[in-house]
Design brief:
Elements lengths: L2 E6 L7 H16 L3 E6 L6 H10 L4 E6 L1 H11 L5 E6 L5 H5 L6 H8 L3 E12 L8 E5 L2 E5 H6 L6 H6 L1 H14 L5 E6 L5 E6 L1 E5 L18 E6 L4 H13 L6 E2 L4 E2 L2 E5 L1 E5 L11 E4 L2 E5 L2 E14 L6
Parallel strand pairs: 1-2, 1-3, 3-4, 4-18
Antiparallel strand pairs: 5-6, 5-18, 7-10, 7-16, 8-9, 8-15, 10-11, 11-14, 12-13, 15-18, 16-17
Amino acid sequence: MRRVMMFLNPLLIHNEKRRAQVEQIAELLSSYGSDVHLQETLSAHSAGQQASEAVAAGFDTFLVCGGDGTIFQVMQGVAGSEATLGVLPFGTGNVIAQNLKMPRNPLAAAKLLLGAQPREVSLGQIMLNPVGHKRMRSWYFFIAAGMGVHAALMNLAPTGQGKRRGGRLAYFVGGARLLVDHPIQPFQIELTHADGSTTTETACEAIAAHVPEINRWRSGGDPFAAWLRVAWVPPTGRLGLGHASFHALATGKSNGYGGWGKLPFAQYVTVTRIVCRPLNGNHYRAPLLVEADGEVLGASYTVIAVSSTKLKILWPNGAEH
């Protein structure tokens, strides 16, 4: 780490304690000979451009002081370059830090990164038309992407207020509310398998995971693989979606139907590409939302695949892979 840019999410380091942690981390890196610069992200969508400009200016390491959403934005400007990205967990979910087996304390995480080695990981890529735009856009993602009620959950607090006030509890409360209020709507998924064959299914929930763990859910992805692990739920009602979600989180049971009323379990399949689209002739009470790494990007249609672009990430010693 020669020239280090520390990107700060101002919404997540707003109190004195967290600011002090950032300054301690900067002093620690400087004591090891790094040229450290601090920069706040100017908006929720500016970090990618800021990171791209910093890559062009010669910064070789980017440390993100924020959550998974900030990492998602910075990653857009770093992926495909020779620069390395490091994670300092200041967020709510911190799923990437979880998969890197990092401590939740940012200062302890920074000390761990001093001995970490850059590892090249694969990335997912999501393509869709953002709401209000006619042209298709694409983003890289590291954690997961998909369509359904879980995307509506990510849209619960677009300003971040709910997350900052309630932490992870905001998600659980919001998820319970969505199961009661939000329409559970079917859509079509087209799955491309490793051998190039395709199958088409009807689902009410679909998540293409790229990491092994997402909080308590063992999604079964692999950030070094050229495939995505898709979990999807067949069309069902509120009770059925709750049943599938519970077993995905608590028991790991999957595929088929079982239990009272023959309720569905989540179905799992390994793919290189998934297309999610509305069913022809179906009337939708609410938009079919699409998210990647917890960021709601659009609605109704998306293509999710493995990208040929790689990302160098600081991978702590002792972590898997």
